Amino acid sequence: MNKILLIDDDDLILKSVENLLKNQGYQVVLATDGFEALERVKDLDFDLIICDMRMPGMNGIETVQNIRQELGKSGKKNVAEIFLTGYAEQDLEKQARQMKVKGYIYKPFDLKEFLLTIRRALENG
Q1: Among candidate residues 7, 69, 71, 46, the one with its CA nearest the CA of residue 125
Q2: Range list of β-strands (E), 1-125
Q3: What CATH number is attached to the domain comprising 30?
Q4: Tens of pLDDT along 53-82?
């Protein structure tokens, strides 16, 4: 069973996406910000990280960069990442693509497209 770390500061998004993913057979661990996500990565191994782009304290780009550093320091394998965003911000999208993340999805998203992106990210690591 694939384990997914879902990071978002919006409780409604966290709960609805968690339910969607659990119904698809994924194991889901939640984090409400980048700092909490870093703690989860220290303690657990994940197959995929889905991260909101806009969060207080540490945005999605910073969160994923810090997670990558933490994984490198602890000798853990790299994890596929997907960004979620409710905003069309070309600078952030460009940064995300330069980071070679596996997906960049706009909210509200099409469920089939979202699940397909997740499957592809997990298959292609």
Answers
A1: 46
A2: 3-7, 27-31, 48-52, 80-85, 103-106
A3: 3.40.50.2300
A4: 999 999 999 999 999 999 999 999 989 999
